[in-house]
C-alpha cells in the first residue's frame, strides 16, 4: 500500500517529518526520477533521492526504533553543523547504519541537561508537536528577588511576545541570598520559554538544566556529553504518549543487559575521544 513520502522517509530514519517536508518543498527530493511534491504517496519499490543521493526505504517491519538519552553540556549547539566550527550535540553521538539521529526538540546553547534523540522521525515529530502537551521539568537558578506574588503570576500566566505562557508547577529548591534554585514544569517547548518567563518578572536565569521529559529523568551519574540507549519499556512509553504502535524489539539485547557502570564508562570514552579530536583540529 502507498504511504505519504515524508512519513516513509521519517520512519526510515532520514530526518524529522518537519525537516523532510522542508526539503520536499524546496525541490531537493525526487521519486523515480521526478521532483517530488509535498503529500505525494509512494509504493515500497519507489526510488527516492535526497539531494541527488539515493536513500533506503524501509518497510515498517524492518525498522527498529532507537532512542538515546543525552546529557547536553552548556556550550553545545542543537544543530548538525555549525559554520563557525563550534561543538554540536551530534558530535558525540554513536554512528548509526542506514539512518540518522533526530533530536526531540532543542535546548539553547547555554542550557544543559536531558535531550532525547531517536532514529524514528515520525516519533520525533509527534513528540515535538505542541498538541502533545508532554511535561518538561527544569532545574533553574535565578538571580534577583522573587516574591510569592511573582510565583503566583508565573503559574497563572504572563503575556510573552509569542503569546501567553505559564509554568504548570513551581517548587522552591533552596539557595543563598539573591541566588535561588527552583524546579519548574512546562508542557510545551517554545524557544527560551523558561528564561523569558523569569525575565518577564525582572529576574535573571543564571543556570538552567532540563532534568525530565515526560516520566524519563536524566540519569544520575551520566556525565555531561555522555549518552545511553533507552530500553524497550521506555521507548514504548514515548510511543504510547503520541499514539504510535508499540515496538516488540529494541537495539538492546535483553539477554545481555548493560550495567550503568559500563554505559557511563562508554560515555566517558566518547567524551575523551571528542576532546582529542577537538585538540587535533586546533593544531591544524
UniProtKB/TrEMBL annotation:
One of its GO terms (biological process) is enzyme-directed rRNA pseudouridine synthesis. GO terms for cellular component: cytosol. Its EC number is 5.4.99.-. CDD domains: PseudoU_synth_RluB, S4. Residues 249-284 are annotated as: Disordered. The keyword Nucleotide-binding does not apply. The keyword RNA-binding applies. Gene3D superfamilies: Pseudouridine synthase, RNA-binding S4 domain. It is an enzyme of class 5 (isomerase). Residues 3-61 form the RNA-binding S4 domain. GO terms for molecular function: 23S rRNA pseudouridine(2605) synthase activity; RNA binding. Pfam families: PseudoU_synth_2, S4. Residues 249-261 have a biased composition (Basic and acidic residues). It comes from the Bacteria. Keywords: Isomerase, RNA-binding, rRNA processing. Responsible for synthesis of pseudouridine from uracil-2605 in 23S ribosomal RNA. Belongs to the pseudouridine synthase RsuA family. This is Pseudouridine synthase. It comes from Pseudidiomarina sediminum.
Amino acid at each position: 500500500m502507498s504511504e505519504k513520502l515524508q512519513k516513509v522517509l521519517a520512519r526510515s530514519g532520514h530526518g524529522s517529518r518537519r525537516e523532510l517536508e522542508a526539503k520536499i518543498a524546496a525541490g531537493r527530493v525526487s521519486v523515480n526520477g521526478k521532483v517530488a511534491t509535498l503529500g505525494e504517496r509512494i509504493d515500497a519499490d519507489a526510488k527516492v533521492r535526497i539531494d541527488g543521493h539515493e536513500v533506503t526505504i524501509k518497510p515498517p517491519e524492518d525498522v527498529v526504533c532507537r532512542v538515546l538519552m543525552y546529557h547536553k553540556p552548556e556550550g553545545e549547539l542543537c544543530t548538525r553543523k555549525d559554520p563557525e566550527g563550534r561543538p554540536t550535540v551530534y558530535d558525540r553521538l554513536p554512528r548509526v547504519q542506514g539512518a540518522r539521529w533526530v533530536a526531540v526538540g532543542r535546548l539553547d546553547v547555554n542550557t544543559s541537561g536531558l535531550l532525547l534523540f531517536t532514529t524514528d522521525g515520525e516519533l520525533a515529530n509527534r513528540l515535538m508537536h505542541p498538541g502533545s502537551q508532554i511535561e518538561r521539568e527544569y532545574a533553574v537558578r535565578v538571580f534577583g528577588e522573587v516574591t510569592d506574588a511573582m510565583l503566583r503570576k508565573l503559574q497563572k500566566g504572563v503575556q510573552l511576545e509569542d503569546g501567553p505562557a505559564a509554568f504548570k508547577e513551581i517548587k522552591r529548591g533552596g539557595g543563598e541570598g539573591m541566588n535561588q534554585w527552583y524546579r519548574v514544569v512546562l508542557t510545551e517547548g517554545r524557544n527560551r520559554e523558561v528564561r523569558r518567563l523569569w525575565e518577564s518578572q525582572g529576574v535573571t536565569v543564571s543556570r538552567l538544566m532540563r532534568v525530565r521529559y515526560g516520566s524519563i529523568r536524566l540519569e544520575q551519574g551520566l556525565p555531561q556529553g555522555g549518552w545511553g540507549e533507552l530500553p524497550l519499556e521506555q521507548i514504548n512509553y514515548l510511543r504510547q504518549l503520541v499514539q504510535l504502535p508499540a515496538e516488540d524489539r529494541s537495539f538492546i539485547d535483553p539477554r545481555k543487559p548493560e550495567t550503568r557502570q559500563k554505559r557511563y564508562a562508554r560515555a566517558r570514552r566518547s567524551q575523551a575521544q571528542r576532546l582529542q579530536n577537538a585538540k587535533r583540529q586546533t593544531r591544524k
